[in-house]
UniProtKB/TrEMBL annotation:
InterPro entries: Glutathione-S-Trfase_C-like, Glutathione-S-Trfase_C_sf, Glutathione_S-Trfase, Glutathione_S-Trfase_N, GST_Omega-like_C, GST_Omega/GSH, Thioredoxin-like_sf. Pfam families: GST_C_2, GST_N_2. It comes from the Bacteria. Glutathione binds at residues 96, 129-132, 147-148. The lineage of its organism: Bacteria, Pseudomonadati, Pseudomonadota, Alphaproteobacteria, Hyphomicrobiales. GO terms for molecular function: glutathione transferase activity. The active site is at residues 63, 194. This is Glutathione-dependent reductase. PANTHER family: GLUTATHIONE S-TRANSFERASE OMEGA-LIKE 1-RELATED, GLUTATHIONYL-HYDROQUINONE REDUCTASE.
């Protein structure tokens, strides 16, 4: 784990001393948008027109944020338009690497060794963390975006003219509902598990755990009487929740100590994860082996032996 300082790689763990044991996620830095005609999006510069073969996605199969982008690539039929490289599950002193074993592909674009080298290609004086996902533009040779929440919105609509796929996971009429769901779920669930897991004081850990389980209880209640978070319509809010829930029992319960209840203990949440998992194309984006090896193997301050638990059996992934 580390970061780039003026374009130079430094091996440092998260600084929680200055925040009294709390994990604070840094904001992402490449915030341009691919749009149908190349006009500027809500942030950043224009010039990123949706074109077949122009963009490349760097992901980790372990990472819940990158996982969102893989799901949208699949559901929005972008497989043939946007190529993908998968980093190695272990993220150690060199950060994400392009070591090629198992389902890691290496760097298909440049044959580089480390993801930080991709960031330096885009900005030779880059400062900050080197995270996945990364959406790369082969035409301008730069990073379009490294913010998953925005990449999925681009995938949702920018390429529709090329794919003919007009499924909409962010329908206009539901924007306010989706934003409200996203806000709570991001803060207490998606990022909540990280706040608990990366806390370095008892107080900071407990401060994250209480709202996390309040939100899971609230979601269980909600999904007991409706199919999706917005009722009958499957939206991006569901996919954003799914990538955390599908990892929950495998890694967050044990490794991040989010252990008041498991997803398996919530009947409605379990059925919901199972139903989303069985949406055609989604199961092939879920790699429990990478997920377990990444978390248990990469965070040596939390799990110094690096031993990866064999269980649990994940009933919600069964047919
Ligand atoms: N805001 C980013 C967060 C991405 C993120 O934190 N990815 C993690 C992997 S799960 C990462 O690459 N961490 C490396 C680091 O922090 O050094 C997004 O949603 O795209």
């Amino acid at each position: 784990m580390g970061m780039l300082v003026d374009g130079v790689w430094k091996d440092v763990w998260y600084d929680t001393k200055s925040t009294k044991g709390h994990f604070k996620r840094t904001t992402t830095s490449f915030r341009n948008w691919v749009t149908a005609d190349g006009a500027p999006g809500p942030t950043g510069d224009g010039g990123f027109k949706a074109e077949a073969g122009r963009y490349h996605l760097y992901v980790s199969l372990a990472c819940p944020w990158a996982h969102r982008t893989l799901i949208f690539r699949k559901l929005k039929k972008l497989d043939d338009l946007i190529s993908v490289s998968v980093v190695h599950p272990l993220m150690l002193e060199n950060g994400w690497t392009f070591k090629t074993d198992d389902a890691a592909t290496g760097d298909d674009l440049f044959g580089l060794d480390y993801l930080w080298q991709v960031y330096v290609k885009a900005d030779s004086a880059y400062n900050g963390r080197v995270t996945v996902p990364v959406l790369w533009d082969k035409s301008q040779n730069t990073i379009v975006s490294n913010e998953s929440a925005e990449i999925i919105r681009m995938f949702n609509s920018a390429f529709n003219g090329l794919t003919g796929d007009d499924q909409d996971f962010y329908p206009q009429a539901l924007h306010a509902d989706i934003e409200a769901l996203n806000d709570r779920i991001y803060d207490t669930v998606n990022n909540g598990v990280y706040k608990a897991g990366f806390a370095t004081t008892q107080e900071a850990y407990e401060e994250a755990l209480t709202p996390l389980f309040q939100s899971l209880d609230w979601l269980e209640e909600k999904l007991s009487s409706q199919r999706y978070l917005c009722g009958d319509v499957l939206t991006e809010a569901d996919w954003r929740l799914f990538t955390t829930l599908v990892r929950f029992d495998a890694v967050y319960v044990g490794h991040f100590k989010c252990n008041i209840r498991r997803i398996a203990d919530y009947p409605a949440l379990s059925a919901y994860v199972r139903s989303l998992y069985h949406v055609p194309g989604v199961a092939e984006t879920v790699n429990i082996d990478h997920i377990k090896r990444h978390y248990y193997g990469s965070h040596k301050t939390i799990n110094p032996t690096g031993i990866v638990p064999v269980g649990p059996e994940l009933g919600f992934l069964l047919p």
